[in-house]
Amino acid sequence: MCRQLDERELEILRAALTSERFYDIYKSTTIPLASTWRIIRRLAERGYVEYHSGHVKMTEAGLILLALHDDVALNILARKYGVSAAVMRKYLELVCKRLGNADFPIRSLVDTVGLLGLETLRELRGTPLEGLAVDLLFRFCRDCVVEIDGSALILGNNGVVAARCRFCGEDIRNELYPECPHAKVLFNSLKTHFLKALKNNYNATK
Predict the structure, then answer these.
(1) Is 53 helix (H, G, I), strand (E, B) or coil?
(2) Could you tell me the mean pLDDT of each successive run of 10 residues in the chain, 206 residues long?
(3) Buried b (16+ CB within 10 A) or exposed e, 47-62
């Protein structure tokens, strides 16, 4: 997702932001028709656009790639995830710094969480990127979210990894590795119940 775009790829992706018709994209660029077709096919093979019956649709992977080079695409991506363009830019820069120019296959920004890993996300605690990281982690780990009393938690081996927490007030706080004592009590309680259930299940099958 962090690969460099050549000028013609950049021109076509920018055109695809404003029109989904192949002919309109071709006419809005300075690229010959045959070359436009070849570039769009190449971008489609890499998952950056979808092409069907003369229509070109930019995927989120394509939007992410373009956002690294284009402020319009950056603003669109930032609005989609409810953050400022500055926060989105810093997050994309972090991802590319950690992953390099490898062309990892991703479908959405959510997939970057799996590529970065929890240790990298831990470093975002207390930074302007924390809220976005929590949001992405909750989308990535949707099936492992624990909800209780209006709060939502993602649990790890040694504690709460991420929280949308309202244990300490009415406002929901998005936090990575929260220090909230209520969250810690909840984690220890759930861990105790899980281990007890595991032991009972083991004894029942003996």
Answers:
(1) coil
(2) 84 94 94 95 93 93 94 97 97 90 81 90 94 94 80 79 70 78 63 58 63
(3) bbbebeeeebebbbbb
> For the chain, first and last CA: distance in Å?
51
**3-class SS string, 127-185:** CCCHHHHHHHHHHHCHHHEEEECCEEEEECCCCEEEEEECCCCCCCEEEECCCCHHHHH
- Name the DSSP class of 51: E
Report the SS3 class of residue 17.
helix
In this prediction the pTM is 0.81
Distance of CA 98 to the CA centre of its chain: 15
- CB count in 10 Å sphere of residue 103: 13
User: Rounded to an integer, what distance in angstroms lies between the CA atom of residue 122 and that of residue 99?
Assistant: 17
Whose structure tokens read 């926060």?
87
